[in-house]
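This protein record is not my work; I was only asked to verify it. Would you go through it and say whether the fold makes sense for this chain? Here is the record exactly as it was handed to me.
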Amino acid sequence: MLVHNVFFWLKPELTAAQRAEFRRGVESLLTIKPHVAQGFVGTPAAVADRPVVDKTYSVALTIVCRDVAAHNAYQVDPVHLAFVEKFKSCWTRVQIYDAE
């Protein structure tokens, strides 16, 4: 199993409509079957502030792939490539953490 965690920092000047469209774009990545076994899209949780908690990102994507091969196939899937091309101008930063 491979867990792919992606954190996006969106440009502050994006409108509410642009942010909603971006979120729908991220949610479209959950449809990449059979490579994505499970997935979740969210925003920073309203948990207590602590030094180890980073709430500075705008949108988070977590997907679970059955293995590294499924992850690699996800990366080159047309839906993923179209998402990156369409929305790359929306973010200032992307940070990825992959775990096996």
